């Protein structure tokens, strides 16, 4: 099994190259490690595949590797282009992923209630009209005892990164804004604090939220760290795994990953 699930969605990293690729590997490793443990715990003794729904799963960055593990994966996404790319990606990998066009609000029409052992909502709550309603829709298709995996942009990191790039006023505005945005030019529609995400998770009826920070150091390191050092990336991965659950450091991660169970 390789460390390749986890999807996309880090701020400002659309086509990773060089140092960004190292950061991308670090993000992937932290999310994947948590997901792998979760899925192992959700499996029953018969070793039958799990039903996994990736809401807003886009082009299949998480869905295809999960299907490669033998799970039965459904992606629900409103973008026909993303779903077409997902189908190409799945075909190239030699797996089948069910692609359904729709939004979070369509989940109840597309899938039976309590269908999935695990529901991924990765980098989606930033874009929906109503995050609480979207999460409730995701929980409704999760079976009792199943889990929801939530990944979202961290407002604290947004402010930190904005200040470190010299935009101190933007950082101040972001921290004061309920949507976690620094202004009209901010490409991210919404960011969350860890407290707000946990609140949303509990309000949606989920229990036992575990919070991890994803990309604590990866987006802060200068590119020269990775130049001419083949070991730098693997050292960063190990550092990120430690920082992900560090009580202080996880709070400044670019993204927050929450796993929680449906009772
Ligand atoms: C930043 S991408 C994340 C894709 C993938 N989950 C990942 O982590 O790589 C956001 C995705 O959410 C989808 N999306 C936007 N609004 C949505 C909605 N209301 N319901 C479900 N998905 C939505 C978009 O089409 C897009 O594929």
What does this structure look like?
By secondary structure, the protein is an alpha/beta fold. It has a single domain, classed as Rossmann fold (3-Layer(aba) Sandwich). The protein is 38% helix and 19% strand. The protein is built from nine helices and seven strands. Strands 3-2-1-4-5-7-6 form a seven-stranded mixed sheet, sandwiched between helices. α2 links the parallel β1 (51-55) and β2 (72-77). The chain is globular. Residues 7-9, 55-58, 61, 77-79, 82, 103-104, 122-124, 127-128 line the site of S-adenosylmethionine.
Could you name the key traits of this structure?
263 residues, alpha/beta, Rossmann fold, 7-stranded mixed β-sheet, 7 strands, 19% strand, disordered N terminus, binds S-adenosylmethionine
CATH topology: Rossmann fold
- Strands, total number: 7
- What's the main sheet like? 7 strands, mixed
CATH superfamily: Vaccinia Virus protein VP39
In the CATH scheme, the class would be Alpha Beta
Which regions have little confidence, pLDDT < 50, spanning 5+ residues?
Answer: 1-15
Q: Output the number of helix runs.
A: 9
Measure the end-to-end span: 30 Å
Helix-strand sequence: HEHEHEHEHEHHHEHE
Q: Write down the overall mean pLDDT.
A: 90
């Amino acid at each position: 099994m390789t460390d390749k699930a986890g999807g996309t969605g880090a701020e400002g990293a659309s086509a990773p190259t060089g140092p960004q690729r190292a950061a991308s590997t670090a993000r992937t490793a932290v999310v994947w490690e948590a997901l792998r443990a979760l899925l192992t715990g959700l499996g029953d003794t018969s070793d039958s595949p799990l039903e996994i729904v990736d809401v807003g799963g886009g082009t299949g960055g998480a869905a295809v590797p999960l299907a490669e593990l033998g799970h039965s994966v459904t992606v629900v996404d409103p973008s026909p282009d993303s779903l077409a790319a997902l189908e190409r990606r799945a075909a190239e990998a030699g797996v089948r992923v069910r692609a359904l066009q729709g939004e979070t609000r369509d989940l109840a029409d597309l899938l039976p209630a309590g269908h999935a052992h695990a529901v991924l909502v990765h980098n989606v709550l930033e874009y929906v009209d109503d995050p609480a309603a979207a999460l409730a829709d995701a929980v409704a298709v999760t079976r009792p005892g199943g889990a929801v995996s939530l990944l979202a942009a961290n407002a604290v990191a947004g402010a930190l990164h904005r200040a470190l790039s010299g935009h101190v006023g933007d950082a101040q505005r972001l921290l004061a804004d309920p949507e976690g945005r620094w202004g009209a030019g901010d490409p991210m529609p919404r960011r969350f604090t860890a407290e707000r995400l946990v609140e949303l998770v509990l309000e949606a009826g989920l229990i036992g939220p575990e919070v991890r920070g994803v990309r604590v150091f990866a987006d802060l390191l200068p590119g020269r760290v990775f130049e001419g050092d083949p070991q730098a990336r693997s050292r960063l991965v190990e550092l990120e795994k430690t920082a992900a659950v560090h009580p202080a450091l996880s709070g400044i991660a670019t993204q927050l990953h929450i796993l929680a169970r449906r009772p």
